[in-house]
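Now for a concrete sample entry.
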Amino acid sequence: MTNFAPFEIYENGGTFRIKAEIERLPEYLEYMELFASHDYEPNGYCWESHIIQTLEKENPDLLNHIEFDPEAGGFYAVADSKQSQLDFVNTLSPIFQDRSKLEKYIRSADRSRIDD
């Protein structure tokens, strides 16, 4: 199985789900410190806002294929196909797994569009 950390993907009843249970991640403290160092609350709503802005730069067409459903303790989304699900994790996992890359996107985010 490919490492899509911090995201997990699975199929449930014909839907292609994506999740990151933020508060349960082994790297939770690292993510918390990174987001907090830029005055963000590291919750699912914040992640959604950053993910949208990152996808706008890296794969804007994918936004038409993902439905976001974050919660305070986790990031959740549904893709419209297996390919969209894989495109999502293949675009974002390398960024979220590399602190310097992730910080670059956090720094460049439009703060007025972040819901945290």
User: Anything to note?
Assistant: The longest strand covers residues 15-20. The helical segments are 28-36, 44-58, 82-96, 99-108. Residues 8-109 form one domain. The mean pLDDT is 95.
